[in-house]
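User: Can you help me understand a structure? I only have the sequence.
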Amino acid sequence: MVESSPPGFPTRAVGEIATRELLSCPPGTPIAEAARRMAQSHHSSIIVVEDGRAVGIWTERDALCVDFASPGGFDRPIREVMTSPVRTIDADASVSEAGIAFRDAQVRHLLVVDADGAPVGMLSQTDVVLNHGVEQYLTLRDVRSVMSRSPVLLAASLPLAEAAGRLRAEGVEAAIVLGGEGEAEPGMLTERDLVRLTAERRLDATAGAAASRPLVAVAARAPLLSARNLFAKHGIRHLAVRGDDGAFVGLLSFSDILATLQYEYIAQLNATLRERDEALIRSHQDLFLARAVIEASLEGVMIVDAQGRIEYVNPAFTRLTGWGADEVVGRNPNILQSGRQDEAFYAALWASLAEKGHWQGEIWNRRKTGEVFAEWLSINAIRDGQGRLVKYAAIFSDITERKQHEEEVRSLAYVDALTGLPNRRLLTDRLAQAMAAAHRHGRALAVMFLDLDLFKRINDTFGHDAGDKVLTETAARLRACVGEGDTVARIGGDEFVLVLTDLDDPADAGKVAERTIAAVKAPLDVAGRAVFVTTSIGIAVYPSDAEGVDDLLRCADLAMYQAKQGGRNGFQVYAPALNARSHEMVTVENRLRGALERGEFSLAYQVKLDLTTGRMAGAEALIRWNHPEHGVVLPADFLPTVERMGLMPELGEWVLREACRQNRSWQERGLPPIRTSVNVSPYQFRSAELSETVSRVLAETGLAAIHLELELTEAALVDHPARVAQAVEQMNRLGVVVAIDDFGTRHSCLAALRTLPIHAVKIDRTFIAALDADDGNGGDGVGGRDADLLRAIVALCHALGLKAIAEGVETVQQVRVLQEAGCDEIQGYLISRAVSPADLESLFNRNLLPVT
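Assistant: Let's start by predicting it. Here is the structure, written out as tokens:
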């Protein structure tokens, strides 16, 4: 029986649109042969059949896991890489049901079966999108409203194995291949291209050679119907999306359109609620339809009366919030508030409802369990025939995962969001290409490193909106100062980099610098006031100053600091004799001498997670220098200077005392006791006063020794075994926990681990980072040399009675491997970045373990 659909939606059965011709092969078929048959017959999948039964499926998506770096990868039997079991759908199911099935199962192919379970065809997302029959909705939505993410961009010279790895790592179906040498036009590399190359057993291909051309693109503002027509016209499943300036801003796939069609059911619901009175007059059938849609909707629905009392919630509301209908009916919706939005936010919401009759946007609410989650919420005011307000209808969906994914994608983007300029990542790629071209043609290029002078004063005086306007206007002026083939990038804050290519004379860079300085210092209109900005510029030339990307940028950076030392609003050409870094060191040292007395230091905390309980086991205290001009300075940028100046004992004691005081403060407020970890420098561990200092700080702060952990680097243990061993023994007598940090980076003395009262070992992040690339087959098991080495380290720790702690954990795959290896605790950006003490409090009493 085909399910009924809202008005305007199709009721066709999937059996009518499925591809009847099925492609199949036995389990022992080599991957290359299966790929050849798929490419030859233009199929996007092949069914693996054994004893007359479908036991698996291999699709274009699975081609991402082919090892293009090894000839043997093409001969693996398909049974080892197929997906099993095969997802099926009844032939009489509706197209709408198929769309939901695709989304829930996270697949792109469904085997269509008859009433007896026998295969009768194959249904793909392509079939659904081209036969959904809702052109009116596709006309009303534009491409950018459903575009899933920023595009993955590949260099044309990238080897095919690495290109396939990028697609697999980014979790995408296709990527744009930028035009390179020999390829003037960009192309699209898709899973279908990988199937074709698998069939051809290609090992030497590059992304540029493998890409499909011409690249078919659609404007971001174009209707979705135009995109669907392009899909059908060209027989493709991916379109590049261009912005108004012609730049690539995204990729559009069949999956994006399919997801959109499901949300149109909710649009139908909104229309039904707005026309409630008219629907009652027209027919009771419309009322029944609206009720059925609400009850079956995957979106949460809440109806509130004019007095602000909840009258009705649908089953999806209960699933998303945890509150049952009997618990919320008659209550105020503010039971869902998370506290993240202030009074001004809600005032604006109610003002919009009063003036426009509707409000839509993102909001953070709280489930019954206390968990905070992100919603996309739409509220409509409903009035009767006399215009009197009678109800409010709210519809919402959980967008927490999407918000998290957007944040991840944003952090990997190539373009600066404020100015539209390339960011540091894209700058590095372009500079490398420009240097390679300059080398081939025997030409020179220059890098100009720009920093706006005293920019912080603008933010402090006029506000950050004014600062943003200055940055965007400066970016526009910089573009006007360079040639068409040159690059202007913003690499952070008020720092810009210009890459000048194909110079006839390196001295021409100085002329560009003079032109740039003049353009930047022209007055700017900010809120009706004239603002003047100047810039300091450092210039480095390839290949005379440096031959590597990082070295060339570093030279330009040094020259820029020399320009600042010379009085700002000027430029300096790099020369080894400048000794610019010496001047910078003097400046830093002068500032550091009084920084502690001025209260310029603070501590941030990074969570240590117990893998068994999923709860916070401790937090590592990390020092930050809040520089009045440069903002937050990380420890790697100033601690070497602190140690060279002999200030480490004083600063180290402050860190120890502040960390202990904060831990004690958390306990006094009733928060669960945790272990605070403090990094102790080799100098401190060698000092005879360490034991006395720790004992005094514990007594002054009232913190029990068991709640303090001192982290000692492996290098200090190896380089100063006798003195460090004595200090470790003293800490043990005090009851303070000692852990070895950066384990595996030096040739450790295992005898010391066996004999000294060490409590824990922190496995260096380099071992953890290698785990993501360990399992080349995309499997869930712990495999490969790096995983074996990790298991051995954990086993060694446990054999010596030590806890094994992994640092630098950034992916769910790493967590899975660490769990299987028996690791005790983890820390890293996946769990939490270093946060302030106040922000850390929100992580107490929560299960922080990501789903693996």
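Now, to help you interpret it: Residues 14-126 form a domain with the CBS-domain fold (CATH 3.10.580.10). Confidence is low (pLDDT under 50) at residues 1-9, 776-782. Let me know which part you'd like to focus on.
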